[in-house]
Design brief:
- The complex is a heterodimer of chains A (855) and B (221).
- Chain A is of the alpha+beta class and 855 residues long.
- In chain A, 59% of the residues lie in helices and 17% in strands.
- In chain A, strands 13, 14, 15, 16, 17, 18, 19, 20, 21, 22 and 23 form an eleven-stranded mixed sheet that branches.
- In chain A, strand 13 (528-533) and strand 14 form a beta hairpin.
- The two termini of chain A are 38 Å apart.
- Chain B has 221 residues and is of the alpha/beta class.
- Chain B is built from seven helices and ten strands.
- In chain B, helix 4 crosses helix 5 (144-156).
- The two termini of chain B are 18 Å apart.
- The model of chain B has no long low-confidence stretch (mean pLDDT 88).
- The chains are: A alpha+beta (855), B alpha/beta (221).
- The A-B interface holds A 396, 399-400, 467-468, 471-472, 475-476, 479-480, 482-483, 754-755, 758-766, 768, 848-849, 852-853, 855 and B 45, 49, 52, 54-55, 74-75, 78-79, 81-83, 87, 89, 91, 93, 95-98, 106-107, 109-112, 115, 154-155, 158.
């Protein structure tokens, strides 16, 4: 009790007056922690809220279901429906058509989910109440739909509006037969939902005799797992039975790795904030050395001093974390769009109206914020207890009070970089590249430890140039930086991290662009794509009959046409995409890069037997080699295929199996086509062809005729969109690091008040003093850029070759965007120099007489 | 050359106005070595700050080489100091990161002279104070006396009208005190520098051309 009251008195006498006197610096530190915590909270909350919205959507369209039965992408055969109903433990089963379709509204497309329900068998729509449903009309006429009030509000429509939906039979107008009032049905909550009669949905979306999903309610007294097993036995391999809870938690691997990467980047922002706190507490200790010495001389224990400065950091941490949580909650509203965009590429969901802060996320953010400030204040506090009372009382200046063991740190830095390399070579754990992330963290730490030495070398190296060309101000600035090696190294490290982060993300994007762009040109080198149903990326592409291409097949501009088909199946519990093509066209036109095998022998084997090509990510995931057998679920039962080659294939993140069309059609009993890839004769203008074909065949069949240049652009834009959120995080990290520059310069000015006074006394103008500070800031920027570029290259090597490989499974060609590196580096130097403006103005307030009296 | 007429100076301390100098008048001729003595808190440093254009008086007139200090703005004062005033501090106040030569050259570098030219000039002045062998040394590698000699050279390099020495021997031992005093006396005699020398040391007070006492903000000549 006595001890805590002593400590409280110390805080009151030492910490609070310091906070009061150095309000701006403390404020900057609090904001630094707040931004770090905010970024973490924003990412986690936005992701959590987006997933929750997706789960709500699934719940709202899966009324009262315990289990959901799905099959391969073309759904279940209708003949299985009676079997499901008769399976032991099944109380009721509702067959559903469920398909993503585009709605055309004022020349824009919006993706919706069409749910085809059998109204004679389901009774989930209210007969009375506010919902106005003309059930008779709905069932008897095919072009009738039911929507929710929320749907009408979202798209600014009314119940008399005609809704234009892209169907397999063209873009057709639908009438609203009913509007579900809010709160009256579970479907009322789903705003991107259109309910259609089951048979109409089968008709319009090419699903005659097919069922997409069956929602099953289990009979009382039966265990979920038991019924799941019974259904599995009755329905066979091609059908997946999952509990609804499992369905709600599902997100694919790409989304998970996207989420994980963002979390890691947000933690890096927090780390930069940690550097800021380290400097703040360190400065506080340096500036209060005398006070500490006096307190120690008067009998204050080392433990009290340690507690005192740790608590100083803790106080900043608590305030910063609390502000950060609120700020993060606010920022989440802006970042949630990215998550919904990424999720809605695969799932449909409700709009995210509210950001949910989950308790675990709140606790983690708070613990991280406080933990990091505690760690970063603990080490300077440890240094404080080593201060000898005699030394500090006698001390006349803050300068040179702390000698940084540059050589020791450099050795440590090199050792850490070696560890980073070793760590990058370790395999992931359960698909999570923990050691690769650790490697990146070690690179950051290693370079941070090397910063004092690099800073010294660089400054001493450029000083003659500064003396010759930039005047005494920059020379003095270069001296000043070396006077506070520790503080400036940390400031530089923070900036270095933010620059390295930017460079590594841009290099990853550029590597994607370069690699996928090249792959696209080699594999998708047809000129025209013809699809049916949704325009690119707006919903499901509907399968087409081969005959659809007949009217143009022999057109003189066409050299050849490939009949491309893709089909999603499952392999060892994960999604897998099967791509099929006409062997002769593929052999002549598709220039696959072979990782194992060669084109000639692989294609020969594929023509003559059950041979396939697999993508390198699939091979990596399951350790497949050329010549291995792979067992796939076909419509003719399980079938073994031989791997004729392993190729680079970026068509899907799930892994790709490619095979000849004849073989696919035989085993999957299919004759449809997803994309007609049209190869034009040499010299033909794709745009002219496209316009001509649009007039010829588009109108009758509702086909989308697109040039492959546009398709490529779409793919590359989608990559850019995915990384938007990363850029936002990079920006926040830069802001935190820049605040660190302001803080360091303010501390520097305070420490050199007397020196500034001397310079002013012997004839330096205010402008010259200001210029010294700006030069210091500029030099900090310059050194950060030099180390940051090295750091960026190292981080990007790990990111491109290890993290990306371990998460997505793709081998990318490393491509450093030199122009971006140059622009970002120059911007960083300018930005850092500008950060010196406020501190430089502060020097104007220094009164020479007072500065000279300082001691 | 240097003239203070009815100078009054006060500061606000703890919210209260505290008078430091009262109606001080003083004339220093060119080449004169003036010693100012007085107890602590008597206003010696304030007087030196006003004479050195570091501070401005509340009222009265300060004229150096026919320039009215009180009529100048901050920027004009700075440029004036750079050209006309040389200051020697008790604690030397050299920049620790610069060599002796660079410290001496600093005022010229601040006025924008080319680095190489300033170094040539600084070599002349380091020679003048007898420290040729220490020109590349940093302050931490020099004794107190050496540092003060470097500070003197720095004060001289712009060939100022007035040299202000604020207890320049206050931090030195007897031997170094003698060296510094002799150096300043010689400079005054041979090169006709005008020197205002503040000291507590009775011995030193005797070497000046004139001695003035300052007590409770009043000059006693």
């Amino acid at each position: 009790m006595k001890h805590s009251s002593n400590l409280f008195n110390l805080i009151r006498m030492v910490v609070f007056p310091y906070f009061k006197e150095h309000r701006i610096k403390v404020l900057i530190s609090v904001v630094g922690v707040a931004l770090g915590v905010a970024v973490f909270i924003a990412i986690q909350s936005a992701s959590y809220s987006a997933k929750k919205a997706m789960a709500n959507f699934i719940s709202s369209i899966s009324v009262n279901a315990d289990l959901q039965i799905t099959s391969e992408e073309d759904g279940l055969d209708e003949s299985l429906y009676p079997i499901i109903k008769k399976t032991k433990g099944v109380q009721s089963a509702v067959a559903i058509i469920s398909t993503k379709v585009p709605m055309k509204l004022e020349n824009r497309y919006y993706t919706l989910l069409v749910l085809g329900l059998d109204m004679t068998k389901t009774n989930k729509l209210p007969a009375k109440g506010k919902s106005h449903i003309n059930l008779e009309k709905f069932i008897s006429l095919p072009n009738q739909i039911i929507v929710s009030e929320g749907f009408l509000e979202k798209y600014h429509l009314n119940r008399d509006s005609r809704i234009h939906i892209v169907t397999g039979r063209g873009t057709l107008p639908f009438e609203i037969a009913g509007v579900l009032a809010k709160g009256e049905t579970p479907y009322s909550e789903a705003k991107r939902l259109i309910i259609m009669d089951f048979y109409s949905a089968q008709y319009y979306f090419g699903k005659i005799n097919r069922i997409d999903k069956v929602n099953v309610k289990i009979r009382k007294g039966f265990a979920l797992k038991e019924v799941e097993r019974n259904l599995g036995r009755s329905l066979g391999d091609l059908v997946t039975v999952k509990s609804l809870n499992d369905r709600l938690g599902e997100t694919d691997q790409i989304y998970q790795s996207f989420n994980l990467n963002l979390t890691v980047v947000s933690l890096i922002s927090l780390l930069v904030g940690m550097y800021l706190i380290f400097n703040t507490i360190n400065n506080s200790i340096l500036q209060q050395r005398k006070e500490i010495g006096i307190l120690r001389a008067l009998g204050t224990t080392k433990k009290d001093i340690l507690m005192l400065f740790s608590l100083e950091g803790l106080l900043i941490g608590i305030i910063g974390s609390i502000i950060g949580i609120f700020l993060g909650w606010f920022l989440a509203y802006f970042s949630v769009e990215t998550f919904t965009h990424n999720l809605s590429q695969h799932y449909l969901m409700n709009d995210v109206r509210h950001i949910h802060l989950s308790t675990p996320n709140l606790v983690i953010a708070f613990v991280l914020g406080i933990g990091m400030t505690l760690i970063s204040s603990f080490f300077p506090a440890l240094a404080a207890i080593r201060i000898s009372p005699v030394e500090t009382i006698r001390s006349v200046s803050y300068e040179n009070t702390r000698r940084y063991k540059v050589n020791l740190y450099s050795i440590l830095g090199v050792a850490i970089l070696v560890l980073a390399y070793i760590s990058s070579q370790i395999k992931p754990i359960h698909g999570i590249p923990i050691f690769a992330f650790l490697s990146n963290l070690l690179i950051i730490l290693g370079l941070s430890f090397l910063t004092p030495m690099i800073m010294e070398i660089l400054i001493k190296g450029i000083r003659p140039v500064l003396q010759r060309f930039f005047g005494i101000e920059t020379t003095l600035a270069s001296h000043n930086l070396l006077k506070a090696t520790g503080r400036n190294s940390i400031t530089i490290s923070a900036l270095m991290i933010s620059l390295a982060l930017i460079i590594s993300v841009f290099t990853l994007i550029e590597s994607y662009h370069h690699t996928i762009g090249q792959w696209f040109n080699r594999v998708n080198n047809a000129e025209i794509s013809i699809t049916k149903g949704s325009p690119l990326g707006k919903g499901e592409i509907l399968p087409m009959e081969e005959s659809i291409i007949e009217p143009i097949k022999n057109y003189k501009m066409i050299e050849t046409i490939d009949y491309y088909r893709f089909y999603r199946t499952t392999f060892k519990g994960h999604s897998l995409d099967i791509f099929s093509f006409k062997m002769n066209v593929a052999r002549d036109h598709m220039d696959y890069v072979f990782i194992e095998g060669d084109k000639n022998s692989a294609f020969k084997a594929m023509e003559n037997g059950d041979n396939i090509l697999i993508s390198e990510d699939l091979a990596e995931r399951h350790q497949f080699k050329k010549g291995d057998e792979i067992v796939l679920k076909t419509k003719m039962g399980e079938k073994s295929f031989t791997i004729a080659g392993i190729v680079v294939n970026f068509s899907s993140g799930h892994g790709v199996v490619s095979m000849g069309r004849e073989r696919f059609n035989k085993y999957w009993k299919s004759s449809s086509v997803d994309i007609f890839k049209v190869y034009l004769t040499k010299g033909s203008d794709p745009e002219v062809f496209r316009t001509m074909m649009s007039q010829r065949i588009d109108k009758t069949n509702n086909l989308n005729i697109t040039t492959f240049t546009k398709v490529k652009r779409y793919f590359l834009d989608a990559i850019d969109k995915t990384f938007n959120m990363f850029h936002a995080l990079e920006l926040i990290t830069v802001i935190i690091a820049i605040m660190g520059v302001v803080n360091a310069l303010l501390a520097s000015i305070l420490e050199r008040k007397r020196e500034i006074g001397i310079l002013r006394a012997i004839g330096a103008t205010k402008k010259q003093i200001g210029w010294i500070i700006l030069s210091e800031a500029g030099l900090i920027g310059f050194i950060s850029v030099v180390i940051g570029v090295v750091g960026g290259v190292l981080l990007s090597l790990v990111t491109v070759f290890v993290i990306n490989k371990q998460t997505v499974g793709w081998n990318l060609d490393y491509s450093l965007p030199i122009n971006v590196v140059l622009i970002v580096s120059i911007s960083m130097i300018i930005l850092t120099a500008l950060a010196g403006y406020f501190p430089s103005r502060q020097t104007f307030k220094i009164v020479i007489r007072e500065a000279l009296e300082y001691e | 050359m240097l003239e203070l007429k009815n100078v009054y100076k006060s500061y606000m301390r703890g919210g209260k106005k505290e008078s430091i100098l009262h109606d001080c008048s003083l004339t220093v001729e060119k080449g004169e070595f003036l010693v100012i003595m007085g107890p602590s808190g008597s206003g010696k440093s304030t007087l030196l700050n006003l004479a050195g254009a570091i501070d401005q008086a509340d009222s009265g007139e300060i004229v150096i080489d026919n320039n009215d200090i009180n009529a100048m703005n901050d920027h004009q004062l700075t440029l004036f100091r750079r050209k006309h005033i040389g200051i020697i501090f008790q604690f030397f106040n050299l920049l620790p990161s610069l060599t002796a030569l660079e410290n001496i050259a600093l005022p010229l570098l601040l006025s924008g002279m080319a680095y190489r030219d300033t170094m040539t000039k600084a070599q002349e002045y380091i020679h003048l104070v007898g420290l040729d062998q220490k020109m590349e040394n940093k302050p931490e590698e020099m004794s107190g006396g050496e540092m003060q000699r470097v500070a003197i050279a720095r004060a001289l390099i712009t060939q100022p009208s007035v040299i202000l020495a604020d207890e320049p021997t206050g931090n030195l031992d007897t031997k170094n005190t003698k060296v510094i005093v002799n150096l300043l006396t010689e400079l005054s005699r041979k090169l006709k520098y005008t020197i205002l020398f503040v000291t507590h040391n009775e011995e030193i007070s005797k070497i000046g051309d004139r001695l003035v006492y300052l007590k409770d903000g009043m000059l006693n000549q």
